[in-house]
């Protein structure tokens, strides 16, 4: 493979992810400053309500910032080149996934979510490269799907079936090139 394929993040779907954090960001402070408007007036309940509202508001703020940063980012969501696949559309971003580490590619539908599972002969390598927040999720992925490496196509501006076919084609090309070496 000599060329590079870059697939951008689907900005409209990313924008839809903002709805819940924005609601938390709006209602958290409202409930904090006026809990009696929303819930019972027991003094003990009001303090618990205020504390919960503060946590919800802070979580909403953090999630809103994270989603807006990803939405405004000019980075490509997924890059496929001669070295392998680099997926930054996923929270468990691990950098480059090398073709030599991929043993097979599987398409799987889990409810409404369509996944591309990159099976690897070195799962620990990628789990150890992941951000601390993503390590637990990658270990769960390894348990459920026998691989820590998943691509969620709905986050990208490319049809699931086309993306799966592209990745499989490039994987086969890379295996053909490695056999010639």
Helix and strand topology:
Blueprint: E1 5-7, H1 11-16, H2 19-33, H3 35-38, H4 43-72, E2 78-80, E3 84-87, E4 96-98, E5 102-110, E6 113-120, H5 123-129, H6 132-145, E7 149-152, H7 160-180
Antiparallel strand pairs: 1-2, 2-3, 3-4, 5-6, 6-7
Would you write up a description of this structure?
By secondary structure, this protein is α+β, with helices and mostly antiparallel strands. It folds into two domains: 9-72; 78-180, no CATH class. The protein is 54% helix and 19% strand. It has a four-stranded antiparallel sheet with strand order 1-2-3-4, with helices on one face. A three-stranded antiparallel sheet has the order 5-6-7, sandwiched between helices. A hairpin with a 2-residue loop joins strand 5 and strand 6 (113-120). Helix 2 packs antiparallel against helix 4 (43-72). The protein is elongated and about 75 Å long.
